[in-house]
Amino acid sequence: MDNIRELMLRSLDDDLSLEEKEILNGELDKCSSLRTELEDYKSIRKHLKQYNHTFSENFNKKLFDKIKPTFDLFGSFKSIAISSAIAILMLIASIYIMDGSISINSLIGVNSYPIEEEFYSFLNY
Predict the structure, then answer these.
(1) N or C: which end of the chain has fewer CB within 10 A?
(2) Per-residue pLDDT for 93 more than 80?
(3) How is the chain split into domains, by residue range?
């Protein structure tokens, strides 16, 4: 039945194939409610064609001003970038406070302990 209604609606706008026309006409001949429904569709379309709806000149501008972008990639990236930069600066400051200097070895976490001290600390654990 839904297939027939689809064919009815398509017949109002598009040309149907011969097979589709035969199917639709056969169903319309069998069922009087489908015939009245099709006539109702046609009368509604006829009455709606009489109305000429126009929009104001600035309708598009008002509409697009109200529609906000749902996702602002740059705005979200900016807040992530700022918080990441602050975290990195805090880490560098803590390294400077703990080691007393900022060198490449202290930034990447390599301490320059003597080998013997490393060996003894390894044996203790």
Answers:
(1) C
(2) yes
(3) 2-53, 66-124
Q: Are 95 and 106 in contact (CB under 8 A)?
A: yes
**The model's pTM:** 0.41
**Residue 113 pLDDT greater than 70, yes or no:** no
Instruction: Using alpha carbons, list the distances in angstroms from residue 27 to 8, 9, 21, 87, 97.
Output: 10, 14, 10, 72, 87
Query: pLDDT per residue over 63-72, tens digit each?
Result: 888 887 666 6
Read off the tokens for 68. 């906000």
Give the Cβ contact number of residue 4 at 10 Å: 18
Angle, vertex CA 108, rays to CA 121 and CA 91, nearest 5: 105
Instruction: Please state, in angstroms and rounded to a whole number, the distance separating the CA atoms of residues 42 and 25.
Output: 16
